[in-house]
Amino acid sequence: MNKIIQVTRSSMPDFEEYIEEIKDLWDSHWLTNMGVKHKQLEVGLAQYLVTPNITLFTNGHLALECSIAAFNLSGEVITTPFTFASTTHAIVRNGLKPVFCDVNPEDYTIDTDKLESMITDKTSAIIPVHVYGNICNVQEIEQISKKYNLKVIYDAAHAFGVTVDGIGVANFGDASMFSFHATKVFHTIEGGAVTYKDASLSKKLDDLKNFGITGSESVEYVGGNAKMNEFQAAMGICNLRHVEGEIAKRKIVVESYIERLNGVSGIRLCKPQTGVKSNYAYFPVVFDGYKMNRDEVFEKLKAENIFARKYFYPLTNSFECYKGRFDVEKTPVAKYVADRVLTLPLYADLAIDDVNKICDIILS
Ligand SMILES: *Cc1c(COP(=O)(O)O)cnc(C)c1O
Fold this sequence. Notes:
Blueprint: H1 15-22, H2 25-28, H3 36-48, E1 54-57, H4 60-70, E2 76-79, H5 85-92, E3 97-100, H6 112-115, E4 123-127, H7 138-148, E5 151-155, E6 163-164, E7 167-168, E8 175-179, E9 192-196, H8 201-208, E10 213-215, E11 218-219, H9 230-261, E12 267-269, E13 276-277, E14 284-287, H10 294-303, H11 332-338, E15 341-343, H12 352-363
Parallel strand pairs: 2-3, 2-4, 4-5, 5-8
Antiparallel strand pairs: 1-9, 6-7, 6-13, 8-9, 10-11, 12-14, 14-15
The structure holds pyridoxal-5'-phosphate.
Pyridoxal-5'-phosphate (PLP) binds near residues 158 and 179.
């Protein structure tokens, strides 16, 4: 049987490097609650992402939930259904109503031509997603949000280290959530962060991730437990040393895919965005009028022990848990793409021979 190729494979530092990083935890016995590693990683990430304000979390999802809570939003939040379950759930779990805007057919981010018409007097925020590391139309979103006085929180889970005309993505909107899950370009095993404009949010975010405890005898918020522990932070410190190299290796993999698949009739790839320095997080392919449909390609690869992913399928507005609440037909572009997209295996150490094998199967 062929060896198994998964859609992704977590980057890891050398075993010795990680052991060296966690050694002093046996001296301090300080394992969580904003320890030394946590502080060191926070500083390192603020530098890497070029952001003045960052707060770490135990995962990206809770980072998003807490950042929504920190802004005291109410009523409706405009977002897209072409995303991971987390984005929509974070809105609903905060007691807010997601209003789904369609995506544009070029980069699958929120369609800013349709955005303004979805705003009502109940709208309090926009939560757009930098899907696959493709950056939303941040200028247009900024203009609309200013005009209607709306908060903007980006789901930047896919966009770690991406820059637009030299500006880090962490600098757009009021806040951005990053995921450091094991499958992401940069990871802390599980982990996440929020970056934000208003420095005064820092204390509130720190309190929200620690049960809403605001002082030794006061609890001002209905918070949760979303703290990053020292072993996670240590993994992040190690991985941050190597992330540039990892992205460079991903770039070579992506270029090899493009060389084989670009221009093939019925196969659509994302065009590089002008001014955007990519992190090569994902390689989505849309099968539209190709001799095989998406599901057939998926099965054909699977038969060879290659596991691509239908990412994002199904749309979040068609999940069982939201049955009867939303109308998928109102986001036809998102539906069209979700029915045809496949993300191909992509990680730093994916061999070019394997890329060629995957492309041979798709093109055969
Ligand atoms: C991974 C991801 C999240 C959630 O992050 P976790 O760290 O896994 O909780 C949210 N949104 C998107 C788009 C993601 O890909």
